[in-house]
Each structure stands twice: as structure tokens, then as C-alpha cells.
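Appendix B, Record 12. Input sequence as logged:
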Amino acid sequence: MNMEGISNESPEAKNGSFEDQFAKKERIKVTGGVAEVIDIKAENPELNMPVFFAPAWGCTTEVYKPALKTLSETNRRTLSLDHPRTGGDMSKTPEEFVKKYPKEELRKAMNILDIMDEKGIPHADIIAHSEGAINIAIAATLHPEKFKNIVFFAPAGLIGKNTFGRLLKGFAGQGARAPSLKAGETTPEIPVTDTEKQVAGKAITEAIKYFAKNPLRGFREGKEIADSDIYEMLKYLHKEKGIGITIMSGVDDPVFPMEKMQKMVKSEIIDGFLSLRGGHGEIGNHPELYMKAAEDMLRKMDQKKTQTNK
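Logged structural output:
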């Protein structure tokens, strides 16, 4: 028998385990410098639609490693990046973009678009955490054809008037564990897990490195986060471009309080709004609950579109 072209490798050996693929971060030149990119490929993806995860301010793929592993286990190709802290060239960015959008958030939006182009990804589903909501909103506004459905977890830019001082105070409030994670009359406790402990420690060390590499850029990013308002962009994306949008928000989020978000967000810009137990970072702390729920919302929005188009 001619065995040429027949591989004896196991399916996992073809692309490698999650750990193998995560360790092989690619360095890709983007508008903001050189980004480190993870690209976890499923052997037999259930859906032919990658999921791109956009990180929060000061967070890296190391912080989100358990969450990205959980996302990849939904049998979806999973991508994310560490935004460059130095270098970059905005000279090729169209002048009208530079005038219209905040510089650092535009830089991050262009980074994401550059990676999608480099990877040959024509369109993707998105999960964006915190600051990631701003740069994803900009990226999708610039190229809506590249984005199908978006889940915004604890998104920036949707609470109305904000200040840099209040933003910092909100981040400082993350030190206390969210009260809603405790047992209630009808809800069991969401206990502290090894993952939660690991992520908390990693978030501190990675944030220190993130800001130490470029304090000025970090400061400018923070100011832009505080000043951003993405409502009109989401309205355009949802109503005019048909992009699915769901918001997930923790009832104890000190950074972008849910009650302020609920007052601002109207049904015209979203498919759904999920009020969740916990605070600002639960998608990283408890990915088995929150990342799985986010990916499930992507599927539900896709199913809704399919039924509507029948």
C-alpha cells in the first residue's frame, strides 16, 4: 500500500496543545510597533469564524491565559495580542482617522486590523474587555465588514461623564472581592479558585511591566479611556451595519458601574444586556463561567441572524 501523504500524527500533534501554541507567540509588525500575537487553532473548528479577544488596559495575554484556554476549548480559533508599548508609525494612517479618533485608541484599533490582515482573517467574532471595547468600536467603525458579532464585557465608554481620577479610583476598588460572588438567599457562592488567585497576582505584575515600559503612553491611554464615549459608534454598527452586539456587566463593577451603563444604553444599539454577579474582571477570574457565557452569546447572536434572514 502506498502510504505517501498519510500522517501518523495525532490530531493534537498537528497544531500542538494549547500550551504549545500559547508559548509560540508571533511577533507581527503593526501600526503601534511590534505586537506579540497568540493564535490558537482548533483541529476541527465547530464554526468557521475565529474569535478575537481584545484586552483591557494594562493587561496582557499572560493575564488572560486561563480565559483564552477556556475560549479555545469551545472549539473556536482564538486570537489575542499584547499591544506594543513602544515604537510604531502612524504616518500611514489616514489623516481623517487621526483627526476623528483618540490617538492611542486609534493606534490599538489599527493594531487589531493589521493583525487580521496579516493573518488573512476576512472577518471575526469579537470579545472585548474594558478598554478593548473602545479600540474594537473604532476598528469596527473603520472596517465593519470585518466584524460579525461583538460581546463587550465591562466595556469602557458607556457610562456617560467620566474623569481620569474617578477611573483610577474605580480600578483601585478592584482590590476588594465583589460581594455578589458570596452566597445569597437563592444563589450559591462562587468560591475563590486557584485561577482567580493566579490571575490576581499575574494582573499586578503584568500591569507594572506594561506601564513601566512607556508611562507617557499609559497615561494618555488612561485619559482617553476616561474621555471616551462609544455609544454613537455602537448605534451605527448595530443599526446600519447589522453587527450583533451584546453587553455583559457585573453588578459590583467599580470601574464602569452597571447602573450608570444601564441608564445610558438603549435597546437600539444592542441585541442584549446581561447583568452578572461579580465585578470588573470576572471574565479573567472565572472564565469557566464568564468566558463561556460570552462565547455562548456570540453563538446566540449568530442564530438570531440566521432565523431573521430565513
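The chain has a mean pLDDT of 93.
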